[in-house]
Design brief:
With 291 residues, the protein is an alpha+beta fold. Helix content is 30%, strand content 30%. β6 and β7 form a beta hairpin. The protein is elongated and about 125 Å long. The N and C termini lie far apart (183 Å).
Length: 291
């Protein structure tokens, strides 16, 4: 019995060596593709839509030999993706996928795959969040409903409003925050009845996964709106002022015309000479005598 056990020992050792070799091969295979992540923990690759810089995805192949990668977007071959038509380029020699003029809608899951081994690596591609330039000055009348909109772009923007020393990321008090038509949370800010004290600067700040985890050079996006609030009677005072000016002008014209007419009558009386007056009287007597 002991002799049989002694003979089994080399066999077990040989079998264990095979298992170790297979495990080492599997581990080395797992490292065959090395993606150019911006953040390896989140498998993240980011881009800035406002820049002209292309999006470059690469998977370095460490396994010797000739290999050709296939590239997929959302589990579909990029060559069959109409959204990327004429905007992508695959460089097989460098194991790269290049997308020119990347857009917000290009974000999503990309995959580089070795068809012969089945190994693949995923990219979570995200667009940096930014705000569209706003109308920085807006005016409302006291009692009106105030509506402000921060127009944000990028992958899943996170918006909060800063008013004075107060920060709002949820509705609170007189401030109501709602998503917009693109379902971006906190994009709209409402106040049902604006007051004179609401005249101030409203700052909206934003961030997303690309800013927080993707690129150390990316900072939070900022925009501001300065709100002016007019009193309810603010529009009435200019109208009353215009009416008063018209009344004063009419009074001045009327007084001037009366004085001018009176002066003309006085001048017409003084312009007649005594001879003209006597001649006029003489004519009147002649007419009487003829009668």
């Amino acid at each position: 019995m002991e002799e049989h056990n002694f003979k089994l020992i080399p066999i077990l050792r040989y079998f264990s060596l095979i298992l170790l070799f297979l495990a080492a091969t599997a581990q080395s295979g797992a490292a065959d593709l090395i993606p150019n992540y911006d953040n390896e923990q989140y498998k993240l690759k980011v881009f800035d839509e406002t820049k002209t810089k292309p999006l470059i995805l690469s998977c370095n192949i460490t396994t010797p030999g000739k290999h050709k990668l296939s590239w997929l977007r959302n589990n579909q071959d990029v060559s069959n993706d109409p959204q990327l038509t004429r905007r992508y380029e695959i460089i097989d020699a460098e194991n790269k996928l290049i997308i020119s003029n990347p857009k917000e809608e290009d974000a999503g899951k990309f995959t580089c795959r070795l068809p012969d081994t089945g190994e693949e690596k995923e990219f979570n591609v995200a667009a940096k969040m930014y705000f569209k330039q706003l109308n920085h000055n807006q005016a409302f009348v006291e009692g009106e409903k105030m509506k402000l909109h921060c127009i944000a772009y990028g992958t899943e923007p996170e918006i909060k409003w800063v008013i004075g020393n107060e920060t709002y990321d949820v509705s609170r008090g007189r401030i109501t925050l709602t998503p917009d038509e693109r379902n971006i949370k906190n994009a709209f800010l409402f106040i049902d009845q604006v007051e004179l004290d609401d005249r101030k600067t409203y700052n909206c700040t934003g961030t997303n996964v690309a800013i927080k985890y993707g690129n150390a050079n990316y900072t939070e996006a900022h925009e501001y709106i300065y709100v002016r609030v007019k009193g309810k009677l603010a529009a009435l005072w200019p109208f009353l002022g215009i009416c008063a000016e018209v009344f004063v002008l009419c009074a001045i014209i009327l007084i001037y015309e009366k004085r001018r007419n009176k002066a003309e009558l006085d001048e017409s009386d003084t312009d007649q000479s005594p001879e003209q007056k006597n001649d006029q009287r003489g004519k009147e007597t002649e007419i009487r005598q003829r009668k």
